[in-house]
Design goal:
Elements: H1 18-39, H2 41-50, H3 60-84, H4 90-119, H5 133-153
Helix pairs in contact: 1-2, 1-3, 1-5, 2-3, 3-5, 4-5
Length: 157
């Protein structure tokens, strides 16, 4: 006869709501995508889809699909960060969203995207680094919408 003993350990890390993160990321990237289309269509129509060799030719629709997919994945990461940081109030979540928008702008748009586009031979390859102010605006809006939607839906989904 054998016995087993299970021991569980608490890490002390709160979990974020990944579903609210996905939904917040989708809504945030749709709002951001609308701004990009209004301000610089080529970014959404050529640069973003060409990361996956889906352009040229220009395709705002494909660019939007890719962009929304990125937004959803980054929303899950945001949810994890919100859980780890125990961001519970609307203000904390909006502040975290704003910071998340800046971090994604620096890390992904300004540094990673130019390298990636160069690697795939995109005709829309920006300089490295690409600290474009309109892109900062777009990413901050994404983060704020993500934080707000996350706060609104965290307990509902």
């Amino acid at each position: 006869m054998s016995t087993t003993t299970e021991t569980s350990y608490s890490t002390g890390v709160a979990n974020g709501n990944w579903k609210a993160g996905v939904l917040g990321g989708i809504v945030g990237s749709v709002v951001m995508g609308a701004l990009v289309l209004a301000m610089n269509t080529a970014t959404l129509a050529v640069a973003i889809p060409s990361m996956y060799t889906l352009a040229p030719p220009a395709s705002p629709g494909l660019g939007l699909v890719v962009h929304i997919s990125h937004g959803a994945v980054l929303g899950v990461a945001f949810a994890g960060l919100a859980g780890v940081l125990d961001a519970e109030s609307l203000g904390q979540r909006l502040g975290l969203g704003l910071g998340w928008g800046v971090v994604t702008w620096v890390g992904l748009a300004a540094l990673l995207m130019p390298v990636w586009l160069d690697a795939v031979g995109s005709p829309a390859n920006p300089p490295l680094p690409n600290f474009a102010i309109p892109s900062l605006l777009w990413h901050v809006v994404y983060g704020l919408v993500l934080g707000g939607v996350y706060a609104a839906l965290e307990d509902a989904v």
